[in-house]
Write a structure and sequence with these properties.
Elements lengths: L1 E2 L5 E2 L2 E12 L2 E12 L3 E5 L6 H8 L6 E6 L8 H6 E4 L11 H12 L5 H7 L15 H13 L5 E5 L7 H14 L4 E5 L3 H7 L2 E6 L2 E6 L8 H9 L1
Parallel strand pairs: 5-9, 5-10, 7-8, 8-9
Antiparallel strand pairs: 1-2, 3-4, 3-6, 10-11
């Protein structure tokens, strides 16, 4: 925590993005993205399909080279080991091994992270204990999503990048995930790509709206005078 101009302590910056750009050949996918996120804040990443949400998360996760400056948990290089160790990324790919069981997947990642978590407790928390010996290839979409989230949180990351984490979850699973996200707020910094506008306003401290790779809005839900649907439509039409 650092004191602000009034002498009060404010959370440090966990994520700083300055003039981020990403191109494929001559085609610009992301153009001049710029924002800051403080420690413990949750940001909802909004925008229509093709707006660049997934690409932005991959850039921040260090999976794609890009122009501009990004500072993630104090690290500027996307190959910085500190950045990799403290960052959790959940994309459309689960990064699970389909020929291994749920337990074996968590054991593998525990060894990779050099940690010794209580795997039984984790499997029970994610409602996978009874299926822990099944091969992941037999899992439903929702079960894979829960296991992928367990993998992502296994190392207790300080920054979470979640790409449409509610996809594939039933109503009960969605409520459980929303509760999990709210539990992390205040301690873990999160950037969550989603199409659910109402949920965004409920769980996020800030909204980041993209359209065709451009940043159309970054601010708190309280800054929106009209309803979120009208505001979003105007920014993305």
């Amino acid at each position: 925590m650092k004191p602000n101009e009034t002498g009060k302590s404010v959370p440090e910056i966990s994520l700083r993005v300055e003039a981020l750009q990403f191109k494929i050949g001559l085609i610009s996918i992301l153009k001049n993205i710029q924002f800051e996120v403080r420690k413990g804040e949750a940001v909802a990443l909004l925008g229509p399909n093709g707006s660049g949400k997934s690409t932005l998360l991959k850039c921040l996760a260090g999976l794609l080279p890009h122009a501009g400056n990004t500072e993630v948990l104090g690290a500027r290089s996307r190959k910085d080991p500190v950045r990799k160790r403290k960052l959790g990324y959940l994309g459309h790919e689960t990064f699970l091994y389909s020929k291994l069981s749920a337990r074996e997947n968590l054991q593998f990642y525990s060894q990779l992270y050099e940690i010794e978590p209580n795997i039984d407790a984790i499997l029970e928390e994610y409602r996978l204990l009874e299926s822990s010996s099944q091969l992941v290839e037999t899992f439903s979409r929702g079960m894979k999503q829960r296991l992928a989230l367990a993998r992502t949180l296994l190392s207790s990351p300080e920054l979470l990048l979640l790409d449409e984490p509610f996809t594939g979850l039933d109503q009960q699973g969605s409520r459980w995930l929303e509760k999990k996200i709210l539990e992390q707020k205040g301690t873990v910094t999160m950037l969550i790509a989603t199409h659910d506008l109402e949920r965004s306003c409920e769980i996020a401290d800030k909204l980041l709206i993209l359209k065709s790779g451009r940043q159309m809005f970054f601010g708190a839900p309280a800054e929106i005078d009209s309803g979120i649907h009208d505001f979003y439509r105007i920014r993305t039409s």
